[in-house]
């Protein structure tokens, strides 16, 4: 069945270019974009049109890194830096997810907010608990949102009861991957996929990393983790692995840098060797500017990585980040790049267009053909009433409207939200 949607359409097929289609139509079949046209072809004249004239239609945002379990802690503990924050706030909260009622309450609230937000796809870490992670997976399936979800692995440098036994960690991770892949066989349209999620090098023993590296090959699984977020963290990794060149080369040695299938969050303090490795392996960088500010982790040299043609998306990193609203993260990515420029004039600030691209198609590439309205892309879209629905005569250009949307926290009305052509119900969960 053909779906025809009318409105003011904008998307960024690459970081240097917008496609701007004022009062136009996007044609979608089975969730996939057929074309964007100014005039409807004759063959479509008798077809129903979803008419959103004077509303903005843009690709949904991709949140490339967040911790669903840390949702209740969002905004708490930012007087501390990463390692202390993990110990004082994050680990104690995550350990409560052994209780299913607690997990259900927090994940329900999280999914309700994620559904209401401008995010259509997300790469999510849960906790190390298998039952609670299964619950999150089933809730995400029901929500209609697209996601990679991982059970966290952590078998060193935490206290019981959060600390895992190495064998259990391996077996539970394998079990979840098998279950989710079996589900995919019977539901090939599922939008929720497994992803291996070793917390970070200090949390995972060499034995566990070895097993996960093998599992990634055996089950063809993607991987997500953290890299070069904080200077004390980096010094700790050096202490734990004195024989490796650097943090990134530890992951490399354990086969955890799978080309096109791995996300490393933060990547703030990479050495030139690490930059080369991450680029050569085609690893996705999840830029998490809000978390990087809140935990005083540092300013990632976004311009440097962008101009080096690295794969980059934007992540909220909830609960290090303090909002699910991807607009705020796009704003901060630009603002921090301007601060970086003010101290180092050789790195030009990142533009609205570049930042918008990163938050849509940039991260969307991890999911396949996602984050754009080019032919063949999955139709993930937001229909937004940004105040011109009545067709006021002073309606600014599409580009200006996007700039305003992105650069402010002005309340806007999300009229519809689609993932692969299906509308997301934003109030079905309480
Ligand atoms: N490094 C290891 N675990 C975490 C986490 O939960 N949040 C952040 N921001 N960094 C991490
Ligand atoms: Fe994180």
Automatic annotation (TrEMBL):
Residue ranges of domain Amidohydrolase-related in the record: 57-422
Cofactor(s) listed in the protein's UniProt record: Zn(2+)
Top-rank taxon: Bacteria
Keywords: Hydrolase, Metal-binding, Zinc
Pfam family, one: Amidohydro_1
One GO cellular component, as annotated: cytosol
GO biological-process terms attached to the record: guanine metabolic process
InterPro entries the UniProt entry points to: Amidohydro-rel (IPR006680), Metal-dep_hydrolase_composite (IPR011059), Metal_Hydrolase (IPR032466), Metallo-dep_hydrolases (IPR051607)
GO MF annotations in UniProt: guanine deaminase activity; zinc ion binding
PANTHER family assigned: GUANINE DEAMINASE
Protein name in UniProt: Guanine deaminase
Annotated organism of origin: Parasporobacterium paucivorans DSM 15970
């Amino acid at each position: 069945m053909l779906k025809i949607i009318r409105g003011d359409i904008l998307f960024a097929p690459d970081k240097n270019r917008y496609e701007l289609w004022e009062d136009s139509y996007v044609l979608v079949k089975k969730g996939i974009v057929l074309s964007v046209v100014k005039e409807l072809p004759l063959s479509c004249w008798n077809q129903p049109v979803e008419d959103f004239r004077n509303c903005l239609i843009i690709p949904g945002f991709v949140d490339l890194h967040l911790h669903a379990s840390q949702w209740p802690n969002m905004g708490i503990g930012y007087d501390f830096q990463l390692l202390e924050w993990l110990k004082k706030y994050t680990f104690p909260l995550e350990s409560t997810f052994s209780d299913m009622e607690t997990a259900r309450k927090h994940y329900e609230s999280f999914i309700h907010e994620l559904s209401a937000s401008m995010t259509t796809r997300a790469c999510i870490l849960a906790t190390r608990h298998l039952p609670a992670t299964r619950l999150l997976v089933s809730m995400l399936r029901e929500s209609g949102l697209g996601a990679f979800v991982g059970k966290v692995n952590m078998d060193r440098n935490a206290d019981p009861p959060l600390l895992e036994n190495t064998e259990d960690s391996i077996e539970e991770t394998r079990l979840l991957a098998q279950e989710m892949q079996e589900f995919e066989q019977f539901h090939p349209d599922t939008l929720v996929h497994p992803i291996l999620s070793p917390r970070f090098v200090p949390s995972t023993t060499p034995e566990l990393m070895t097993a996960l590296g093998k599992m990634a090959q055996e089950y063809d699984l993607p991987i997500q983790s953290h890299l070069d977020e904080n200077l004390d963290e980096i010094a700790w990794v050096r202490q734990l692995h004195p024989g490796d060149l650097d943090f990134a080369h530890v992951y490399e040695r354990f086969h955890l840098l799978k080309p096109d299938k791995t996300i490393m969050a933060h990547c703030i303090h990479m050495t030139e060797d690490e930059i080369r490795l991450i680029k050569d392996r085609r690893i996705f960088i999840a830029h998490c500017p809000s978390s990087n500010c809140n935990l005083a982790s540092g300013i990632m040299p976004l311009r440097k990585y962008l101009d080096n043609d690295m794969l980059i998306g934007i992540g909220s990193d909830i609960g290090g980040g303090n909002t699910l609203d991807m607009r705020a993260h796009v704003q901060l990515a630009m603002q921090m790049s301007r601060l970086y420029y003010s101290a180092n004039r050789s790195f030009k600030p990142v533009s609205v267009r570049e930042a918008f691209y990163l938050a849509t198609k940039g991260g969307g590439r991890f999911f396949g053909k996602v984050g754009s309205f080019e032919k063949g892309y999955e139709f993930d879209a937001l229909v937004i009433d940004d105040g011109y629905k009545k067709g006021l005569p002073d309606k600014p250009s599409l580009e200006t409207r996007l700039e305003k949307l992105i650069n402010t926290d002005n309340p806007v009305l999300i009229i519809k939200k689609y993932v692969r052509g299906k509308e997301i119900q934003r109030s079905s969960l309480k």
